[in-house]
Amino acid sequence: DGRPHSTVFHHHAHASALLTEHGVGDAAIVFAWDGVGYGADGTLWGGEAFVGRPGHWERRASLRSFRLPGGDKAGRSPWRSAAALCWEAGVDCPVPVPDPIVRAAWERGVNAPRSSAAGRVFDALSAIVLGVTETSFEGQGPMWLEACAEPVQRFPELPIGPDAQGVLRIDWAPLLAACGNKRTGAGERAGAAHAALADAICRVAESERARCGVSVAGLTGGVFQNRRLLELAAGGLAQLGFRVLCPERVPCNDGGLSYGQVAEFLGAARGTS
Length: 273
What we know:
Blueprint: H1 10-21, E1 28-38, E2 44-53, E3 56-63, E4 66-67, H2 78-89, H3 101-108, E5 114-115, H4 118-130, H5 140-148, E6 160-162, E7 168-170, H6 174-180, H7 186-212, E8 216-220, H8 227-239, E9 243-245, H9 257-272
Parallel strand pairs: 1-8, 3-7, 8-9
Antiparallel strand pairs: 1-2, 2-3, 4-5, 6-7
Helix pairs in contact: 1-9, 2-4, 4-5, 4-7, 6-7, 7-8
């Protein structure tokens, strides 16, 4: 309507909410993991790591992206996320795909936006480990996966390397075989998936500390409502000597988003004044 406005990206708001809640003015690395939110590159983000401060973020790491068949429909149909990861990795999907037209549309990029969402990765793993194909609300499959997860000592190490833009990509592909190995109990497979992703978070943080000296690490976004993932990642980061920030008074999910939008706007304004 012609009135002045500012654009604030979804995951920048998550990161800004966390640092502002804790009154942190120094640069930090913040992992913003959730379902999907529009990203600055036009894809659907959701497994991001930013370095900086409110209003001034640099995307430094992300989960490996994949094309999501059905777009928003995937939020309540974990089989779609399982198919997406398996097709992206070039392996057979162990979860039934009810309609073959979905694969044809995916191959043509029809209604299959590219995403790096951690929530959809957890959806996929819940389908592979527990056979969850349809749910009544977003996050139901990952909640069941968390509930059945057992402590583990061994887990796959996920490859991490830069893409063409220099963004570190955490490759979830080794989780497909590990989670699909039915010679191992579901609880152990679920536990290994959580441990592998938490370990990857710690290795990304270490890499960024070596690069730019950040010593504060934050964990936010709806995926960190998963207590097992949060405790494994926070514990690992603390052991590495990071000051770890977790949401306390402001919700880590989208309930804290408007607070983060204001924090991001004010941070950007301070940087230009």
